Amino acid sequence: MSQLLQSLPNARGGTVGDSGRVGVIGGSVGFPGQPSLTALAALRAGSDVSKALVSEEIYSVVASHSPDLVVDRYAGEQYDDEAVESALELADWVESLVLGPGLVDADPDAVRRTVDETDLPVVVDADAIDPLLNADLSDAVVTPDDNEVGRIEEEHESLEAFTSATGAVVVAKSDVDVIVADGERTTNDTGSPVMTVVGTGDTMAGVIAALLVQGLDRRDAAELGAWIVGQAGELATVERGNGIVTTDIIEKIPQTVQ
């Protein structure tokens, strides 16, 4: 991991965006905090800009979470075909996308169209995973939790088979993170037992997206992203104990990278 960390830029660029722009598409009435966590994690991992695209129903909530975020909206509550037009406009402005954190009840066709029509590396998370189980994911990193891994294995028998069939890189989040690329499996054992707190997966997605815009390929970004989040969680646990929340982990990302 030391070699991968040394490959990251040592300083931000001369103008806004030189260290990369990350777009985050997610959120819902029931889960308005997830896109904010993802976008903040991307900033802490070194991207210059994190822009969240959310429904107008939750725009004011997400926009109030942090002055560090840029937030835009699409009409209505559901992520549908019309919302994809806003997503593609965002994709023209950023260098990587995260699709799915908190994105409940999205139109499956809209999710598939977003990936099909985007020429960017995409981190696919949470409810965006299921519509893409048989898609071309050769530019994607997929970040399933245990339940989503089960769904992948129902469709493809194993994570290795899934990556071979779709071209995806997978980071399966668990007590020991599993990274699978090109049918080959590695593991990451950094982390803390109290990292079961909600939001750690959203954080992982943001960190990986930030590493992608800083020049890492998908496999290296997946492996380093898992390590960074686990190590940040260990530092947060030392300071906070069993009471850590996801924002505590996010705040430890710069120290981990440094």
Chart the SSEs and their pairings.
Elements: H1 2-6, E1 21-25, H2 34-44, E2 49-55, H3 59-63, E3 70-74, H4 81-91, E4 96-99, H5 108-116, E5 122-125, E6 140-143, H6 146-156, H7 159-166, E7 169-172, E8 177-181, E9 184-188, H8 200-213, H9 218-240, H10 246-251, H11 253-257
Parallel strand pairs: 1-2, 1-4, 2-3, 4-5, 5-6, 6-7
Antiparallel strand pairs: 7-8, 8-9
Key features?
UDP-N-acetylmuramoyl-L-alanine:D-glutamate ligase, alpha/beta, 42% helix, 258 residues, globular, nine-stranded mixed sheet
Q: How many domains in all?
A: 1
Poorly predicted runs are none
Mass-distribution shape: globular
Helix tally equals: 11
CATH class descriptor: Alpha Beta
- Any idea what the radius of gyration is? 17 Å
Question: What would the CATH topology be?
Answer: UDP-N-acetylmuramoyl-L-alanine:D-glutamate ligase
Give helix % range.
Answer: 40-55%
Mean pLDDT: 94
Structural class: alpha/beta
Strand order of the largest sheet: 3-2-1-4-5-6-7-8-9
State which percent range the strand residues make up: 15-25%
Distance N to C terminus:
12 Å
H/E element sequence = HEHEHEHEHEEHHEEEHHHH
The CATH architecture assignment turns out to be: 3-Layer(aba) Sandwich
Biggest beta sheet summary = 9 strands, mixed
Q: What's the CATH H-level superfamily name?
A: Ribokinase
Number of β-strand runs: 9
Catalytic activity: (6S)-NADHX + ADP = AMP + phosphate + NADH + H(+); (6S)-NADPHX + ADP = AMP + phosphate + NADPH + H(+)
EC number: 4.2.1.136
GO biological process, one term: metabolite repair
Enzyme class: lyase
